[in-house]
Amino acid sequence: DWAFTDCTNLTTVTVYASTPPSLGYRAFNYCTSLANIYVFSDYMDTYKGAANWIAYKDIIKGFGYCGATGHETDVVWVLSGTSPNYTLTIMKVGETGAMADFGSYYNIPWESNSNNITSVIIEDGVTNIGGIAFKNQQNLTSITIANSVTTIGKYAFQKCSGLTEFTVPDGVTEIKEAAFDQCSNMETFNISTGLATIDNNGIFWNCNNLATFTVAAGNTAVKAEDDVLLTDDGKELVA
């Protein structure tokens, strides 16, 4: 009981146990800076309902690892909020970190919560958005991406039908195959100056509501010709 009372500089607690450890009464009482209690995502709801842990349910957040092969622990994903309005945050552990390319929708570590994720935040220091990372997250409506991201992987936002607008961050230089395939409610897409390479293979296939397409002055990856937008190799970008 009262184990960490008045630890006013304590900001984060991480628990790796699948079963909530016994927690004394008001163990974190007057820990005025405590903002995050991280547990593995699969056990988040269990912790939120466990004895004495329930008092901290509003700051209990699920997490896991999603770094590239061989560097899995370089990038962490955190699920916060309350179902069905979760925020998924991707953050680096060291100075920088690359996300994994997941290969299959069923390999996405947050797949079981995909329908409840409404917001995604890619924090500074993450260098890429992995292939298939946010595929089929149909309730996703808000995306914040740091300028440290240079690449958007293939099929990264495929079938994200909740997206209506997307602005390519200034740091992104490459968008890979079919990254926005079947984003059926996408209305506006804005390209930054730094984007140099666009894989035109299905990037906007079945984006039937895409009506506004802007390109920042000075961009060399896209050009307008006879009222048609073309990639720098002459391929038609939007019909």
Structure report:
The protein is mainly beta and 239 residues long. The protein has one helix and 16 strands. The model has no long low-confidence stretch (mean pLDDT 93).
Highlighted features:
1 helix; 239 residues; 3% helix; 7-stranded mixed β-sheet; 4-stranded parallel β-sheet; 16 strands; mainly beta
Largest sheet: 7 strands, mixed
| Bulk shape | elongated
Residue share in β-strands? 25-35%
Strand order of the largest sheet: 1-2-3-4-5-6-8
Poorly predicted runs are none
Helix content: under 10%
Total strands:
16
| Span of the ends, CA to CA | 66 Å
Report the mean per-residue pLDDT as an integer.
93
Category from helices, strands and their pairing: mainly beta
Note the run of SSEs as H and E: EEHEEEEEEEEEEEEEE
Any idea what the radius of gyration is?
20 Å
Tally of alpha and pi helices: 1
What is shown here, in short?
With 239 residues, this protein is mainly β. The protein is built from one helix and 16 strands. A hairpin with a 2-residue loop joins strand 15 and strand 16 (228-231).
Write the layout of secondary structure elements.
Layout: E1 12-15, E2 36-40, H1 44-49, E3 60-65, E4 75-82, E5 85-92, E6 117-122, E7 128-129, E8 142-145, E9 151-152, E10 165-167, E11 174-175, E12 188-191, E13 197-198, E14 212-215, E15 222-225, E16 228-231
Parallel strand pairs: 1-2, 2-3, 5-6, 6-8, 7-9, 9-11, 10-12, 11-13, 12-14
Antiparallel strand pairs: 3-4, 4-5, 15-16
